[in-house]
Structure formats: structure tokens, C-alpha cells
Amino acid sequence: MPDTTIGFIGLGNMGMPMARRLVESGHTVRGFDANATALEVLASHGGVAGGDVTEVADCADVLILMLPNSDIVEKVLIDEGVAQHVSPEALIVDMSSSVPGRTRALAETLEDKYQVRLIDAPVSGGVKGAVAGTLTIMVGGDDAAVKEAEPVLQILGRMVRTGAVASGHALKALNNLLSATHLLVTSEAMHIGRRFGIDTEVMLDAINGASGRIGSTENKWPNFVVSETYDSGFALQLMLKDMRIAQQLAREVNLSVPLTDRSVELWSAAAQELSPTADHTEIARWSGLR
Ligand code: NAD
Questions:
Q1: pLDDT by residue (tens digit) across 177-195?
Q2: Which of 5, 120, 147, 285 is the most buried (most CB within 10 A)?
Q3: CA 123 to CA 141: how far, in whole Å?
Q4: 199-227 pLDDT, tens digit each
Q5: 76 pocket-lining for ligand 1 (C-beta < 6 Å)
Q6: Are the C-beta atoms of residues 29 and 23 closer than 8 Å to each other?
Q7: Across-strand partners of 159?
Q8: What distance in Å separates the CA atoms of residue 207 and residue 40, rounded to the nearest whole number?
């Protein structure tokens, strides 16, 4: 669908590079963000700055949301009137990392009350993946609706079908529970090794060729911790939000998860002690100061 008009709400660290890829692929992208500077940046890259969320909704064949959380997704769709403005033929794709139970309820409300369809398509791969179009996109929803979204989503990365609506959001939270927990335990191991006197680069080199190898040793420690830049572009608060979603899922399926509980507790402590805008990779520095 080369002349699909894509509405894009939420032009932050992830949304902006995703919207830019869609513009570069030849689509008309009409975007909106609460931050006026983001709208100027979108326009400077060939997108169209929308006046508000309803104006973006009015023109969209596919309406993508890349917002911080379920509260804001619901506020935009229901309270700010987007649901009333989206045409019944259009499709809403929530690519934010939202709460699965709330996504399921929202999809039902949109269908029953507004005759609008919603699928969930959260992503992993970070800002780097958003820029390169190499995100892993976990897609939940009705087959026909997902098929319609495919030409747009394929520009952003690799789609993995997860099942019914909200299953993408569930899997995304579980992925981030893993990502966060292994970043923390990697950091503990690295600080133990440093205090014992082993060189950081030597540890990473050895572990990356050994059984302890993981995303945190291959990517996060070398790129954001050793460099002391702590600038991955994914906020610690957003990571903690996802971990809490995963923890809540465990409660809902009645599974005891002591390691998850401890990990959430430690990330919560870091969130209280660090700046509200801290990058999630700052957990590595924080864990070495305890
Ligand atoms: P961000 O905070 O950088 O961007 C969110 C954007 O939403 C901001 O530009 C903000 O101004 C805008 N916004 C907030 N409320 C709004 C409203 N009511 N109306 C319009 N715009 C509004 O966050 P991000 O890092 O881009 O993350 C977005 C989503 O993607 C989150 O759900 C996050 O958990 C998820 N995610 C982030 C990453 C990452 O590496 N940053 C990776 C995967 C998934």
C-alpha cells in the first residue's frame, strides 16, 4: 500500500526514527506529539505535523501509537476523541509497551462502541533498531487486521505473530523482564570481577565467548556502561513499568515468581534513588555503588 496515509502519535526516542523510516519508504506520515519540537523535527524530515490527535486520526488509514504507557494510550484514544475520529476502515496499531489486560479491554471497547479495530505490535531492538528498521515486532490480533498492517510493519522490522490481541504486549513485558534481570545480574558479576582485580575488557571478551554471554554483555555493557555514556535512549522508568507488567501477569496466571519479585524490588529501589529521567543502563552503575 504505497500511498497509505499513516497517522503517528508519539514521536519520542522510538517513535521519531520509526516515523522517519515510514516517510523515507514513500508513505505520507501525519504525526502528533505533545512536544512541539518533535513536530518540527518530523516536518523537517518530510512528515506532516498534525495540529492535534483528532486531526491525525481523521486522515489515517493506519494509526500507529508509540506512547509511554496504557494510561496515555487510553487518554488519547478515548478521552481525547481519537476513537470517534478514526474511520471504520482504518486500523489502530498500538506499538507502545502497554498492559495486556487493558489492551484487551480497550480493543473490545473500540470494537463495540466505535466499530474501530486495534492490534498490538510492541517492539524490541531499541533506538538503534528503530533507526535501522530491524526491530522485532510482537504482533497480537485478528489475522485479517494483522495482514492489513503487514506492509507498514515490515518497513520497521521483523514481525512475530504472538496470537490474539494483547499477546504481543504480554510477550514484550516478559522480554523486558529478562532483559532487565540479566542486565542487573551481569552488572553484579562485573562489579565482583572488577573488585577482585580482573580487567573489564578481559571479562567481557571471555564471557562473550563463554556460556554467560547475553545481550547485556554483548551490547549494553560495552556500548553504554564501559563508555560511561548511559545513553541507550530507553528510560529506567519505562523498563520498570514493563517489569511490573510482567510481575502482574505472573499474579494473574497464579505463578509464584520469587526471582522476578526480587528483580522488580531492586529496579524500584534504583528508580527511587536515580534521576526520574535516568537511562535504564544506569542500573549498572547503581549496582556497583551498593
Ligand atoms: P519517549 O518518552 O521517548 O516518547 C514518548 C513520546 O510520547 C514523547 O515524545 C511524549 O512527548 C509523547 N507523549 C506523551 N504523552 C502524549 C500525549 N498525551 N499525546 C501525544 N504525545 C504524547 O518514549 P520511547 O522511549 O519512545 O518509548 C515509547 C514506547 O515504546 C514506550 O511504551 C516504551 O516502553 C516502548 N519502547 C521503548 C524502547 C526504547 O528503547 N526507548 C524500546 C522498545 C519499546
A1: 999 999 999 999 999 999 9
A2: 120
A3: 15
A4: 999 999 999 999 999 999 999 999 999 99
A5: yes
A6: yes
A7: 137
A8: 44
237 lines ligand 1 (CB under 6 A): no
Q: Which atom of ligand 1 is nearest to the CA of 98?
A: 32
Q: Which helix (H) or strand (E) holds 57?
A: helix 53-59
CB crowding 231-269: b at 16 or more within 10 Å, else e: ebbbbbbbbbbbbbbbbebeeeeeeebeebeebbebbee
Q: Is 189 in the pocket of ligand 1 (CB under 6 A)?
A: no
> At 272, is the pLDDT very low, low, confident or very high (cuts 50, 70, 90)?
very high
- The whole-angstrom separation of Cα 103 and Cα 140 is 10
Instruction: Give the fold, CATH level 3, of 170-289.
Output: N-(1-d-carboxylethyl)-l-norvaline Dehydrogenase; domain 2 (1.10.1040)
83 torsion bin: left (phi>0), alpha (psi -120 to 50), beta (else): alpha
Q: For domain 5-163, give the fold.
A: Rossmann fold (3.40.50)
CB of 224 closer than 6 angstroms to any ligand 1 atom: no
Domain ranges of the chain: 5-163, 170-289
The angle that helices 143-156 and 15-24 make with each other, rounded to 10 degrees, is: 90
Please work out, in degrees rounded to the nearest 5, the angle formed at the alpha carbon of residue 103 by the alpha carbons of 97 and 104: 145
| Rounded-to-integer distance, Cα 268 and Cα 58, Å | 40
Q: Nearest-CA neighbor of 264 among 288, 239, 281?
A: 239
Residue 124 alpha carbon to ligand 1 centre in Å = 13
First to last CA, the chain: 53
Q: Which atom of ligand 1 lies closest to the CA of 241?
A: 34
